[in-house]
Design a protein that fits this description.
The longest helix has 20 residues. Strands 1, 2, 3, 4, 5, 6, 7, 8 and 9 form a 9-stranded mixed beta sheet that branches. Strands 10, 15, 16, 17, 18, 19, 20, 23 and 24 form a 9-stranded mixed beta sheet that branches. The chain has 2 domains: 213 residues, PmbA/TldD fold, CATH 3.30.2290.10; 199 residues, no CATH class. The chain is 21% helix and 38% strand. It is an alpha+beta fold and 429 residues long. It starts with 5 loop residues before the first helix and ends with a strand.
Length: 429
Amino acid sequence: MDKLTLDNMTALLRKADGVSDFKVVNVATRSYEQFFVHGKLETVRECDSDDYTVTVYNDHDGKRGASSFDVPASLDEAGFKAKVKRAVAGAALCFDEAYSLPENATCIANLPSNLAEMSAKDVASRVAGIIAEVNVQPDCDINALEVFVTKRTTRVLNSRGVDKTQVKHTLSVEAIPTCNGAEQSVELFETYTLSDLDEQWLRGEIEARLKDVAARLHAQKPAEKLTCPVIFNAYELRELFDNLIEDCNMASVYAHANLLSVGDALQSAPQADKLNVTMRAAMPSCPASAAFDADGCALTDRQIIKDGHIVALYGTHRFAQYLGEAPTGALGCVDVKEGTLSAAQLSATPHLELIYLSGLQVDVYNDYIGGEVRLAYYYDGARTLPVTGIAISGKLSDALNTVQLSRERTTLGGYSGPAKLKMDGLNIF
């Protein structure tokens, strides 16, 4: 049985009854993986996959429906035709407002990454070497480590003349820092996805996490109620801004799921730093960087929050049409402008610095921010103590007015911006 090719698929789709338009997304993934337990290399694995997802569009009754299916490697021509027929029937049951697909555009993009200059094995070995260098405490170490070095080639082709390819390299590191005490053991879980190998940054991160897990072993609930500003770090900042920008997404606006609109203020009376957020197609070290999205729409940068006010929306080709806006594509990189104070200045007075939460809860619609604290450092002006067993909560709109941002920046996942953010007025209990 001959394997279906992309040319076979597109030819069959063009002939199929009921297919008004179509899109094929091909993702070829090559990954090299190493797994360590207590510093010992246990498993090495190489994985190759070549996946196809087909979307068919059916126009009917002035509406448009869409249905998607995956193409397994074992599928033959008859099986493909049967899947197309079922997808057309499914699309005919959808009654979305009509929209067009991107048209007549081609490109081949190689997203910048220093990972492309090294072999996957060399990258994994360097990461393992960094872990070995810092893994020197007798009772606290990286219990388990997984390293994934991936090259992903994505091609998007549609019935309207789009044929785009992009190549992306990423490094994923999953580590479990563990500390053993006389009566108990504690562990933390860390995962990093990077588009570049920055050995100095990674070394600093692992050293900090080993320090944190040692502190977690000895952390206690404060004897008295704490009343002080709260400092957030990168993990929570990523969650915070992901939630804040949701009202700027065209899909949210179209679904009437947004509370704030263009012209409204996230910060009604800012007392310190004003928030400025730009959605970007690509940023250095951002694994969410891309040249185009899953529809083949070229990505375009757009500032959406300026001086604490929503000034624009971002969104896909489809929802831009619904709202009469220019599309940006599905942007994945959130760029937050830094502040003017150093991290040391933000930390100079009494504060609670959050290190691990069970999950930051941000609800724009109920004007709430909060979370359960698993580990934080409380600085009382003279000494720093590790604390646990507490929670924070507050009125989001009031807290945003007190924001102070560090001038030092960091990148984590799709977030790039101030490494630290300080808020006042939160309840610590």
